[in-house]
Each structure stands twice: as C-alpha cells, then as structure tokens.
Write a structure and sequence with these properties.
The chain has 233 residues and is of the alpha/beta class. The protein contains nine helices and eight strands. The structure holds 2'-deoxycytidine-5'-monophosphate.
C-alpha cells in the first residue's frame, strides 16, 4: 500500500480492538497507538497522588507530565516522565477509575491534541473510543468493533488470568458494563460509532478472521482512493 493511511479503530473494552490493531499495524508496518493507555496513565498518577476527586489538580498534573507510548516488537509500553507504567495501568483500581477521569474535558483536549500530533503523518493504526469521531474525523478508514458482553467478559477475565490476576467473572462484567455506561453517556466525545465507520461484531470471529476482514476492507478503501492518492504524489 503506497499512501500512509490513518486507520481508526474504536469500540468498547474487550471488543478485540487492541489485538486486532496491533496485528494490523504489524501487517501494514504502521505505528500503533493505544490511546486508552494515555487515559490509564493519568488515572494511575491521579490515584497515586490521591487527587482523583480534584479535576484542576489532575489537569495540572497531566500538563506537567510527559506521557510517551512506544510499540516495539509487538509490545506496547507507556511511560510517564520516563517511568514505565505499562503494568500498573492495567490494575483493577485503574479499571474502576479511568472512565471518570476520561470524562474531564481538559484532560481530553490535552490528550486528543497529542494523539493528533502523533498521527498527523499517517501510517498509523490508532485505537480508542473517539478516534473516528473526534481525533481523526477524516481518517482514511474507520472501524467500530463490538462483541457481546459475555464474550467480552470471557476475554477480559482470561487476559487478566494470563497476567496472574484471578478476578471473578461477575466483577469483570460489572466493570465492563459500568465503563460502557460512563464512556457512552459522557458529554465530551462519547463512545459512539462514526457514521462512516465499518461495524464489525467480533463475538464469534477468531483473531485471524477479524484481522483478515479488516485488512481486506482497508485494501478496498485503498483501491477506491487510488486515483486520489496518485494525485497526491
Ligand atoms: O481501551 P481501554 O479499555 O484501555 O481504555 C480505558 C479507558 O480510557 C476507557 O474506559 C475510556 C477511556 N478512553 C477514552 O475515553 N478515549 C479513548 N480514545 C480511549 C480510552
């Protein structure tokens, strides 16, 4: 594929976004950006400083913290002021607080700006909740992944188990439902499918099937846009 595209992948937690986006980025030799990790990092720091209830302080903390994401050899990492927080941001405590912090308008403005800078040159697969609607409404191709709540719960529970965290399924399910509710109903850029996004229900798809389907759809878009890309050269 000649032109470097911006690929947006949105959807709720456990819909298969991360796995799909990473594999796709590898296949396309693109950058991969997990925007959720940015919201998780500021949530972790707010918890650490005990300021989760104080919006202005959280905003100030974010302004003076350098959040960096890396993706090397299939592994994505998040750093705050050079400190690796990749493990810490996946804790149950962060899971339970991240949606509330993601609602804060100024937090979103700062992080969205950062995401736009990183993706500006294209050649990127960006995953999140508002990539196709707010961060890059003109993304070349957009996907909105969904899956049944039971399937998402199973996947998340297994993922946690693999990291040595044994959390009962009902707790995982409750957290997912709670986050869905807050993420979808918030005023600032709620989780929603962009009108021009391709919907993919991953409930009964294998990872390979998901990635192949999305890859083919991207190819279709490239073919449709080819005359326009040629002009851009
Ligand atoms: O993708 P994730 O589950 O790691 O995201 C964690 C939270 O971050 C999610 O519940 C809502 C928030 N988020 C967001 O508001 N906007 C994004 N673009 C990505 C994540």
């Amino acid at each position: 594929m000649s032109k470097k595209l911006i690929v947006a992948i949105d959807g709720p937690a456990g819909s298969g976004k991360s796995t799909t986006a990473k594999l796709l980025a590898n296949k396309l030799e693109y950058l991969y950006l997990d925007t959720g990790a940015m919201y998780r990092a500021i949530t972790f720091l707010a918890l650490k400083h005990n300021i989760t209830g104080n919006e202005p302080e959280i905003v100030e903390l974010l302004k003076r913290t350098e959040i960096e994401l890396t993706y090397t050899d299939g592994v994505s990492k998040v750093f705050a002021d050079k400190v690796d927080l990749s493990e810490e941001i996946r804790s149950q405590e962060v899971n339970s607080n991240v949606s509330e912090i993601s609602k804060i308008k100024q937090i979103r403005q700062i992080l969205v700006e950062k995401q736009r800078q990183i993706g500006a040159l294209g050649g990127i697969v960006m995953e999140g909740r508002d990539i196709g609607t707010v961060v890059f409404p003109n993304a070349d191709v957009k996907f909105f992944l969904t899956a049944s709540i039971d399937e998402r719960t199973k996947r998340r529970t297994k993922e946690m188990q693999e990291k040595g965290k044994h959390i009962p399924e009902d707790i995982v399910k409750e957290n997912l439902l709670n986050r869905d509710k807050i993420d979808s109903s918030r005023k600032e850029s709620p989780l929603q499918k962009a009108k021009d996004a391709i919907g993919v229900d991953t409930s009964s798809l294998s990872i390979d099937e998901q990635v192949n389907f999305i890859y083919k759809e991207i190819y279709k878009v490239v073919e449709q846009k080819r005359p326009h890309f040629e002009q851009d050269k």
